[in-house]
Amino acid sequence: MQDYQKISEALKKSEGEKAKVRGWIYRTRSSGKLAFVTVRDESGIIQVIVEKGKLPDEDFNSARKALIESSVEIEGTIHEDERAPGGREIHAASFHVIHFAEDFPITKDQSMEFLLDNRHLWLRSRKLTTILKIRSTLTGAIHEFFRSHGFYEFHPPILQPSQCEGGATLFEVNYYEDKTYLSQSWQLYAEAAIFALERVYDVAPTFRAERSKTSRHLSEFWMAEMEAAWFDLNDVTEFAKKEVKFIIKKILEEHEEDLRFLGRDPEALKKMLDKQWPTIKYREALEILKKDGMEVPFGKDLRTIEEQRLMKHFDTPVVVTHYPKEAMAFYKPSDPEHPDEALCFDMLAPEGYGEIVGGSQRSTDINELVESLKKQGEDVSKYEWYLDLRRYGSVPHSGYGLGVERTLAWICKLDNIKDAIPFPRTMSRKSP
Q1: How many C-beta neighbours within 10 Å does residue 347 have?
Q2: What is the mean pLDDT of the chain?
Q3: Most CB within 10 Å of its CB: which of 160, 253, 392, 397?
Q4: How far from chain centre, in Å, is Cα 87?
Q5: 354, β-bridge pairs
Q6: For the residues 326-333, what does the mean pLDDT come to?
Q7: Half-sphere exposure of 60 (CA within 13 A, CB side)
Q8: This prediction's pTM
């Protein structure tokens, strides 16, 4: 490593201290005998002053010649200057260019489509670098949370012959002389696992062929899913609240300044942590909407527009339970006291971000499962292995999935979910 420091470490040094950094040119301009070069690495940016006569001529000429995104190694002395980014700059004693970049194609005011076409280069932007660092903390927090609560990480197949979210959004895959599908969820396999491990979780890619071009939908995204034996609906909803609060707390501990850079006020998130997050029933949500002038008939799932209107009444995430049974997936059981309601839930984020978690208690009634599968037009024979789970020692159990990108987009207050994943895949985009 040759004693190189991260730029964030160099910015903590005092006047006159030596610094040795390396990275990529972020901005550059020169005037006569001076070159002003801003250098970035993953930790931040720092201004470098390159003055003719203060270092070898070869180095000075390289500094003047090098374009944005050229990779460099620099040694020099720290000088405090409140005008510089971070309040400090390096006066270079050596300036070595590792690679002279060509003209960088990304300039100011490029369209979203252009930036998506050049995503492999746009990842270097301070905005995406910041988001990806927070994303890493988020997924790390998920692993820490579940392991601290006695969960085992369990890996399901990505190629699956039977699904749990309906055939309309399946991605079909040629499988030798047959066909199979990309995973919509790990759920059916997780239900098999709880009879061995009792509490399991996973963070994995998920695929939905949804024909939607909204700022909230991706065709390939990541879900953090859990399944637990002996959990009922109340257990699983309260556990979901604990997980999301844990994630927010971890991100606040490590990324307050990053959040501010993205335009998210950390104080708003802190206030949410100190409050109780309400749980309401679907029917209660309809009453709130009705008083707000929006009539939604019972039986209709809440769309984005209804979720956004509902969440104007709350300043924290809200759990909505007991959606109409007729609109739900086959594995969500009816409430014994209200058969037209399912024992399920969604967690909705405030500020217009909508659903970030969805889950349910699972049906343990094999006859109800078979009837629901038939009603939804499914071939019951494909689910015989799943029905076996109800034949041999069935127990109450529940689970949910947290959308990594949706949660990240809300926490970071992003305008578009495409910025919450390195290389977004949508209905109209499969590259780069």
Answers
A1: 25
A2: 95
A3: 397
A4: 32
A5: 349
A6: 92
A7: 13
A8: 0.94
